[in-house]
Each structure stands twice: as structure tokens, then as C-alpha cells.
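Re: that chain you flagged

S.,

Sorry for the slow reply, it's been a week of failed gels. I finally had a moment to sit down with the sequence you sent. For the record, here it is as I used it:
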Amino acid sequence: MVEILARPGAGEVRIPALVKLGGTLYCFYDERPAPASGRGDEFTGEVMASDLPNPNRIAYLRKTATGWVGPEYLSGGPEVSSDACVAVSGDHLTIAYATATSVSYMGSTYDGPRLEPWLAYGTLDNLTHRRLDELYEATRADALFATSGSTVTWGDVALLPYVVRIGDETHIRVVHIRGGEVIAISEPIRAADALLDETSLAIADGKVVLNSRVQGFEGRGAGARYLAFSDDGLNFSAPQAWRLPDPGCNAKQIDDLFIHPHSLTARENGVVVRAGTDEVLARFSPGGFGYSDALWDDGELVVVFERDGALHEERITMPFHELQAEIIRTLGVRPNIDPAVEVNRRVDFLCEYFRVTHSRGFVLGISGGIDSTLAGRLAQLAVEKLRAQGTEATFYAVRLPYGVQADADDAEAAMTWIDADHQLTINVQAATDGLEAAYTTAMGKELSDFNKGNVKARTRMIAQYAIAGDHGALVIGTDHAAENVTGFFTKFGDGAADVMPLAGLNKRQIRLMTQYLGAPEHLWAKIPTADLLDGQPLRTDEDELGITYEDIDDYLEGKQISAAAAANLENKWRRSAHKRHTPPGINDEWWRP
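Prediction finished late last night. Pasting the C-alpha cells below so you have them in one place:
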């Protein structure tokens, strides 16, 4: 642990927000002079003495090879600024903050003097500031402020969690900012039995995770936080209480890790906890642990936190190796393969399973992606081998476009190279759109693009099983280790099949085998895409997953990857466990924590 910024005389430095710009770490914070009366950490009956309207201002430090340097001050905005909420997209910053010179959060009213929300957008040396009065008009709030610390971006949209007070009621709303402009605001996010306050947002398993403290000071409202989840950052599940020692304090969730003061009575005893559980993964140096923020840097978790009016930094290397070994064993991944040997092994496996099940054929949907291309060629090689041995066997390769497929040329090229016995096309658009229309009629709202994508995947599987049922065939699935570890498949969609010839392979090995078999380069070198979203055609898997296949493959081969990538991957593994099991019955235990 190192002190990165000392207490300034009788004042204090507080509210860290950590971000990385161009490979450089920055720590935004509040410089808070001594309040006119009382101590800064003293509750005055309305707010902490050093909260607004104390004349605070936002500053930042920059990390260099020799340590943290600064301070430099946020320029161009109002003289008083406090509680920075910071998001990064490329080299652009979105910084939400508050100002007030005569009124506090609790004294603010819709019709009277207000706590003012402000926004700065641009590069660090060229920020444009403006008041966000439209938030008051949209919410009719008496007071609102963006909760402090770094926050996430969803594509190019900054997601800013705001605490909104109307009278004595408090809830959270997530404001979406693109290019410095408000483009959407979530519905109010409320807990049934608590008032929610400062909130951390994270991205985990493709969802936005909202992690809120219970409103109150140490000893009041302590002992719980609330978690809610969203597919789009606008519509959240009902917040559910997560019971744990927590004094009611700003904290940080990053991936599925939660950094906070692990105490019921004071801001002290900082730990890293697995979000939603009571599993303590790491502890910080004993002593005070106030508001904090964290990010990954060179494989380490960097945490900056308040202690005794100063800011301190501590770095932790998280232990991932035991779980990594367990995942590799479970998925049966080999770190090295001989592509010729592996092709023969998997063709023989298909032949053996075919005979045992007394089947008459195989069915597989061909998308033009590398997975179905390799699985399709293995299937054709298997039926040819079976026929050579005197067993009746036929392979049905079927294209399953939704309307006009964006990469139809690749699908046709794959079909030509695979050279299946029977080549079919079933367009799933009518069936998918029919179900979508029925859903809209029944539910009174449109099906989300994400869930419509899953409907497409399940409709494709229905089509394959229709062919299989009429011809006594087995449906081949394309699931493999790099897909399985992330849960990146549709449950009862492409995850449903009779046999999985690619099981245990990572993406690198699939590419190597496809190349060995002589596929055209544009097929085995193609960037993977599930292509299920109408709104984002051909969105890459890596963009959707938030992790590269290179990292996934290295991890599955037992290599060390960055702690951030490992945490992301292992979080996906835990959250997608239900996809790797049959639905639980009362005697099953796998689903229990």
C-alpha cells in the first residue's frame, strides 16, 4: 500500500475515480477544503460537512513511470465541482459531476434552489461543460446526482447511474450519454424495502449489473447491498438484497469482483468479494477503507481508496489458477493437437456413435462460420467412411438464413467445400417473424432484439430436428470449448444437438484443423460472428463477449492471461453453468452455491 496523495492540511481528498486513457492511468478526485464548521467526516444532520455546498473542486493525478504526478484541475466548468462519475470511450471522456453554492442534496427542491448536475465531454485537454437541467425535467426530481467513481460504456454509450430523490423517496436511474448528449434514461430502479443510493455499474456475462448501497450512514442501512441486471442498460430486473457486512458506503464492482469496506459499523477492513456471495478473495492492508475505485492494469487489480483524509493505492494479483485447471479438466482441452490425428479421432467418434444409435444420417446447419464448416466436413467424411464399410449413411447440410443472409457468399462457399450428400435451404424468417408477432400480440410489447436472436437460433434447431425426425438422423452441434467456457450459445438453440464432434477444441485448434483439411483461406480465417441481432448485423463474437479468442484459447491451454480477461472468462463460466446441465430436479445439487 502506498499513499498517492496526502491530506491537504485541515481539508481532505476524497471520491477517487480511476480510468485508463491511451494506456495511462488517471485518478480523478475531490479536493475538499476544511468546511466552515465541523469536521469533513462529521454528519451534520443533513450531509457530511465536506459535501456540497462546501467549495470542493475536481482534480486528477496522472500515473507515470516514477509514480503519480499532479494535481491538475478540471478546467472550463463551474468553480465548485464534486463527485466525478467518469466513463471512457476511446480517447474521449464523459464526466458527470455536481455543483452547488447554497444548497445541499437534502435541501435541493425541484421548484427551488437545486443541486446542479453538470456534464463534461471531450478529450482531457478539450472538455465541453454544460448543465444537465433536462434530467430534472425528465424525472421531476427534487435532487439528483451521478454516483461517484468510474462507470462503464456500452458500445460507445456511457452509462451513468444517478441517484434521484423525489420528496423522501430515492431510486436509481441510468442515464445513457453518447457524444456528450443524453440519448435515453432508464425507468426508475427501486428496491421494495430500502432506499437505494450510490451505485456501481459493471458489465458481466453480457449484462449490465447494477450494485447499489442502501441509503444511510455507518450502522444505519448497513449489512446489505442490492443487485439488479439488464440486457440493455434501460430495463432492469427488480433489485434483490445481497446480505453482507457493509456499512453503507460507495464501492466498486468490476467484472464479478466487488471491492468495499467489509464492516457493519465503519469504513474499514477493505476486501475483494465475489459479487452476490460471501466469498472473500483478497484483503487490503488493515485500517480505514472509505470510498474506492478499481481497474485492471497489467494483470493486477489496482485499487485507490480513502484513508485518513488521504488517497492510497494498493495492487492485488488475483488467484485464478485452481479454477482454470478445473475448467480445462471439465472441458477436456488438450494444449496441443496434431490436426491429422484429431480429424481421424473425431470422424471415428461420429462413426461409432452413429452405429450405436442405429441412425441413418446426420443433419447440420451450415452458417458459413468456421465451426459449422469444420463440423460439416467431419460429418461428410464420417458418412463416406460408414458407406465404405457397408453402413447406410447420409449427410444433410442445410442453410438456415433469416431473410437474406449478410454473409451468404461464405455459407455457399462452405457448402461447396463440404460437398454434402444433400444440400438444403430452409429460410427461418417466416417462422421467427410469426412467433415475434404472436409474442407482441400476447405481451403488448415488442420482443427485444437480443431475445429475437435466440428465437432465430431455436427456430433453426427446430428445422434441423424436423429433417432429422423424418430421416432417422442425428443433429450435429457445433459447441466447442471456447464457446462452452463462455456460455456463448443459445440454450435449446444451437446448444441443443445429439452429438458434438468439436467438443474439447478451442478456436485456434478448430482453425488449424479446418486449414489442414484444405478449406479456402477466407473460411478458416474468417472473423467469428453469431449474426443473430437485427440491429447489429455481423457483430463479432469478440465484441459481444468482451474478450478475444486469443485470450480464451490461451486460457484453455493453461497459459497465463491478464487478470482482467481471466476474471471476465471465469465470471462467464460461473453464470452460464445452467447451460451445461440438464434442468435441475429436486435431487440435483450442481446448481447450489
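What I noticed first: The longest helix spans residues 449-471.

Talk soon,
D.
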